[in-house]
Amino acid sequence: MCAKATMEEFEALLNESFDIDTPDEGSVVKGRVIAIEAGQAIIDVGYKMEGRVDLKEFANPGEEPSIKVGDEVEVYLDRVENARGEASISREKARREEAWDRLEKAYADEERVEGAIFGRVKGGFTVDLGGAVAFLPGSQVDVRPVRDAGPLMGLKQPFQILKMDRRRGNIVVSRRAILEESRAEQRAEVIANLTEGQVVDGVVKNITEYGAFVDLGGVDGLLHVTDMAWRRVNHPSEILAIGETLKVQVIKINKDSHRISLGMKQLQADPWDTVGDKFPIGSVHQGRVTNITDYGAFVELEAGVEGLVHVSEMSWTKKNVHPGKIVSTSQEVEVMVLEIDEAKRRVSLGLKQTQRNPWEVFAETHPSGTVIEGEVKNITEFGLFVGLEGDIDGMVHLSDISWDARGEDAIQDFRKGDVVKAVVQDVDVEKERISLSIKSLENEHMAEAVDGVKRGSVVTVEVTAIEDGGIEVEYNGVKSFIRRSDLARDRQDQRPERFQVGDKVDARVTNIDTKTRRLGLSIKAREIAEEKEAIDQYGSSDSGASLGDILGAALNRSN
Fold first, then answer.
1. What are the S1 motif domain coordinates in residue numbering (predicted)?
2. What is the 3-state secondary structure (H, E, C) of 521-532?
3. Least confident among 17-21, 183-187, 300-304, 418-422
């Protein structure tokens, strides 16, 4: 009976010992390193249980394992006994479980965690957070894109947990958030020590099309391209280089957004302070074309002072031409100052004013009545445009082309490129118009043709055409028309058909109109005048002699 009680007590003590000393599978237990052999650590986890763990599980990424016999470590117990009769344990799993507990607490408290980047994966990097592996997206590595992440590999540094899911084993961290927070603190400290108008040293960190970012010692300021120099700067790289140290003035500080505007030209004298003295209105200066637009060209008079030559002030003659066809960039030109607005910092310049108005010159050298010669530049429905000296045009209106033909018909005889002569009728300098006349040339020819001829004179003409209403004749190149009623005194002889083209006929001049280029002729008037003269000289109507007798006697006398 006593022996039986003793056995029961022993069994109870044994079971109690098992319950106390035997750890549960799937838990983290403490053990002691009792030996290191064949790249493994043999660890006693209690109750006569030993397990093996690869040494690499005791090493941080990129480091050698630091473990020795006698060290106490925590391991994860997978199974109490494996096929070899040993405990199946893992240091890596123990670290992971420990890390997840620690990281969950840090995530809940929004605390930073320490880790090291040890690998590159698609879209980012892997980070060891002391046993747990996290994903670091490429966009969260730095505040600016990182081209070479080599210097960051294996380096222990703080990270911020953005998201974590223990069930799926996902952790996403950010290094950028830490940097931005640090930069914000540093920026706030630097900005607190800056004042507007202060001159500071900075280093050019980045260059863009619109300016350059300058590092002022932990905070960046923007140096806009318009604040780099008083003169026009097409691109910041013309005067700046990355890494260059320069002096800048703090123009504006935005305390809320922590944005700083910088300037370089503010440290130099403003050339506009002396513009009025250097460039008085009406003065002519040499300048360089810096920019060409649809509405004109900008000309630099000196560094920092530019003026606009409006397209309407570029040429006297080229009205609807793009400025780029008159001047070119970097060309040296002579301009006149037309207007200065110092408040708006604007100078209006003129290019054509440096040359004489070609219409004024033409008016001086070609008064009304001057005969000119030019090429037909254009033909329109209302006249001809003829090229003249000074690259200007004169116009011959339809009504000034010909005396004999309608203007619409006469203009058909002309083509572009024809060289014609015309008479200057009028020059309007203000309206830039020159009126020409081709038919006025014929007036001059008529004046020469009828020189010495007076009203009542008898001239010999040549028949050039026969019509029902009369005959067309020509005298020294001047054409005229004798009506049927003026072909003879006697009615029965007033027949155009009794004449032939080429006949020479004497006719009396009844009218001379140089304006209309008309010469009035009459055969009838000549015959009546001759009869009257004969009667006056050789008889009278009362003498009884017939007209035939009188004319016969007159003819015999003249013979």
1. 26-92, 110-176, 197-265, 282-352, 369-439, 456-524
2. EEHHHHHHHHHH
3. 17-21
Which top CATH class is 110-180?
Answer: mainly beta
- SS3 letters across 176-228: HHHHHHHHHHHHHHHHHCCCCCCEEEEEEEEECCCEEEEECCCCEEEEEHHHC
**Other residues' Cβ atoms within 10 Å of the Cβ of residue 448:** 11
pLDDT tens-digit readout, 406-445: 888 888 888 998 898 888 989 998 888 999 988 777 655 5
**Count of other CB atoms within 10 angstroms of residue 217:** 13
Are residues 319 and 253 in contact, defined by beta-carbon separation less than 8 angstroms? Answer: no
**Dist CA 86 CA 55 (whole Å):** 17
Cα–Cα distance for residue pair 385/237, rounded to 1 Å: 52
Domains 27-109 and 450-538 share a fold: yes
Return the CATH class of domain 358-445: mainly beta
The closest of 173, 169, 96 to 132, measured between CA atoms, is 96
Nearest-angstrom CA–CA distance, 208 and 220: 14
CA distances from 207 to 125, 142, 222, 233, 264 (A): 29, 19, 10, 13, 15
**pTM as predicted:** 0.45
Q: Could you confirm whether domain 271-350 is CATH 2.30.30.100?
A: no
Q: Which two tokens stand for residue 139?
A: 């966009």
> Which CATH class for the 450-538 domain?
mainly beta
